[in-house]
Specification:
- The chain has three domains: 228 residues, Rossmann fold, CATH 3.40.50.150; 200 residues, FAD/NAD(P)-binding domain (3-Layer(bba) Sandwich), CATH 3.50.50; 141 residues, D-Amino Acid Oxidase, Chain A, domain 2.
- It has 19 helices and 34 strands.
Length: 649
């Protein structure tokens, strides 16, 4: 999913788009223009000084240099309540390269603090959705790379103010169409404002036709007029949570991520774990590898792999794990057979950014690894390894999270507006929101037993470092993975045994893992017997039939089957179990997928903009299997509007 960068000329040190033949901002003062057109004319200062909600959402057409975002961020910090959060959504068809972005923003020294943070996160920019968090969640940027005509219909949000930017209608006519204004109306509510630099008749008439009141105002600088207005029809129905308490069942990466995503939004979270400590199941492995298993063609699984990976990388930047617990040493994914080699080459042809991945020869791969390897393949320079238990502990080290270990959740009950978690005869916790993040144990609860999870056994082997392996510098993946030595020990794995629920350590699995050494590294082909197994571990992954996680709200399966809906029913009218969610079925990809799924859930629970497109939300919905089984495949494809956020039409 490559993106085409903006093509620029630089005139007097300012960027000029050669694709559109237009400027990015006023030559007089881009900073003053932004403050006047978008901040002042949307009345942001006065609205934020009297803000009564816990978040405010702005949507923008045309991210460009990021100047509007940075000015908005600066104003938010000046006048918004300390506990409120800003969501800034922006679309961009042709993103600036990092070098061009840095050069353009160097013009505004008073924004240097915000600029530095943005540039630090402005990498791996591919086509699709990127959620970037600043100031511990106080500022959230959702940057959507692609054609606004295609991306905006996929957005699920309730927008409070619009920045209608982008190039002039005469030079960017494809954007300024009625479909844009209609999508704006879908995402707006009563009182949503807009401001735009243009006063073109096509824009005025289009906004009026979509339900906006429109009036002319004095333009900036030499521009005589601009347009402002607001939306005045039926408001979005947004279910806001005033009782911000939640329960999360499961202390692995899915549970820890879900707890963290809510806690950073000010929720009080109780995490229930049946073991004596967290991260005792699959998340208890000593090492986990962070890299995306990409497909040659675009699909939901591929988008989840890529954007889940990027989300995890950005999360790791934010939480600052100790160097002994995390290393972005890079990951080599080798084309170890004909099928894998074809896949690797096809991915490389997608021309993704080189800071995300690049194709390397066998010789270059060996140089990167520090040991000669047997195959060519892909190199992910920002990928690496992490200790899952350390990551879970870091995510749960939050003042809003209470951990209750040795609590075996057996039954869930809905009493009034609260979910209760029972351990036999003992009430363990109750709250209005509950997230089940307990892998295969999810099916033990009657409310979630329609999710078809399969336990898949995986065993890793711990192998003593030798003189022939001590130079390994990167993680190397073939049919498994081998990581650089940690405390003089390599972790090799993992086996994949479906329909096998045993966690006993098996010698044959150790031997299978050792075979990875001899087939991966050309210099170790005859030395399998030289390696000492010093430990191992087996655990069970939870896998769904389509290999996509199950993340989202749950339907009442009994009510659904008793009153079968039409194929074209509104998903929001289905019998939802209000306040009950799952984050499970991640298989061997929990480190890459679970944090993004947690962010999706937290956004839905809080009525905030989704970090992913609607089609991906539908592909993750945990009710999809039940609906398909009932012959409601079309309805399953529409499960992208969670019951916490209802569009107004």
């Amino acid at each position: 999913m490559p993106s085409k960068n903006a093509k620029l000329d630089w005139i007097d040190g300012q960027p000029f788009s050669t694709q559109y033949g237009d400027i990015y901002f006023s030559r007089e003062s881009g900073l003053d223009e932004t403050r006047y057109v978008f901040l002042e004319k949307n009345r942001l200062r006065e609205r934020w000084q009297s803000l009564t909600t816990d978040h405010f959402t702005i949507a923008e057409t045309g991210f460009g240099t990021g100047l509007n975002f940075l000015c908005t961020w600066q104003l938010w910090n000046e006048c918004a309540p300390a506990n409120a959060r800003l969501h800034f959504i922006s679309t961009e068809k042709y993103p600036l390269s990092l070098a061009d972005m840095r050069k353009a923003l160097s013009l505004w020294h008073e924004l240097s603090a915000q600029t530095a943070e943005l540039l630090m996160q402005y990498q791996w920019i591919t086509e699709g959705w990127h959620r970037v968090v600043f100031e511990h969640g106080r500022i959230t940027l959702t940057l959507i790379i692609g054609d606004v005509a295609e991306t905006l219909p996929q957005l699920r949000a309730s927008v409070d103010a619009w920045f209608l930017d982008g190039f002039a209608p005469a030079k960017n006519s494809d954007m300024w169409q009625q479909r844009l204004f209609d999508e704006m109306a879908r995402l707006s509510h009563k009182g949503t404002t807009f401001a735009t630099f243009t006063s073109a008749g096509i824009v005025k008439r289009g906004l009026q036709a979509a339900g906006f009141s429109v009036k002319k105002s004095v333009g900036f600088g030499k521009k005589r007029e601009m347009l402002i207005g607001e939306y005045g029809t039926t408001p979005n129905i947004v279910v806001t949570q005033t009782n911000k308490r939640a329960i999360v069942i499961g202390g692995g990466i899915a549970g820890a991520s879900s707890s963290y995503a809510l806690a950073k939004r000010g929720w009080q979270v109780t995490l229930i774990e049946r073991h004596a400590d967290i991260a005792q199941e699959a998340s208890g492995n000593p090492v986990g590898i962070i890299y995306p298993r990409l497909a040659a063609k675009d699909c939901a699984l591929n988008r989840l792999a890529l954007f889940g990976y990027l989300h995890t990388l950005r999360l790791l930047k934010q939480i600052d794990l100790d160097v002994t617990d995390y290393s972005n040493c890079g990951v080599l994914q080798l084309g170890f057979n004909a099928k894998e080699l074809t896949r690797c080459k096809a991915i490389a042809e997608n021309e993704l950014p080189s800071d995300l991945l690049r194709y390397v020869s066998k010789e270059e791969a060996g140089d990167l690894a520090g040991i000669p390897v047997a195959h060519e393949g892909l190199f992910f320079p920002s990928a690496g390894w992490v200790k899952p238990s350390a990551l879970c502990n870091r995510l749960l080290d939050h003042r809003n999270i209470t951990i209750a270990t040795e609590r075996n959740a057996i039954q869930l009950k809905k009493v009034g507006e609260h979910w209760q978690v029972w351990g036999g005869q003992h009430l363990l916790a109750e709250a209005p929101v509950l997230i089940i993040a307990s892998a295969n144990d999810t099916m033990h609860f009657s409310q979630a037993n329609h999710i078809p999870l399969e336990p898949v056994r995986g065993q890793i082997s711990l192998v003593a470092q030798t003189a022939r392996t001590e130079n390994l510098k990167t993680v190397v993946c073939t049919d498994g993975y081998i990581n650089p030595a940690i405390d003089h020990t390599h972790c090799i794995g993992a086996t994949f045994s479906p329909a096998d629920a045993s966690i006993d350590i098996r010698d044959e699995d150790h031997q299978a893992n050792l075979s990875l050494l001899t087939t991966t590294f050309s210099s170790l082909t005859d030395t399998k017997q030289l390696y000492e197994i010093v430990g191992g571990r087996a655990a069970l992954r939870a896998v769904t039939p389509d290999y996509m996680p199950a993340a989202g709200p749950l339907l009442n399966a009994g009510d659904l089957q008793a009153h079968i809906p039409r194929h074209n029913a509104d998903p929001l009218d289905l019998p939802w179990l209000q306040g009950l969610y799952v984050n499970t079925g991640h298989g061997a990809k929990g480190l890459v997928n679970a944090p993004l799924c947690a962010e999706i859930l937290a956004s839905a629970i809080c009525g905030e903009p989704s970090p992913v497109d609607a089609s991906l939300m539908a592909a993750l919905d945990p009710n999809r299997f039940l609906l398909r089984k009932m012959g409601l495949k079309r309805l399953a494809l529409g499960l992208s509007a969670y019951p916490s956020l209802k569009p107004n039409n």
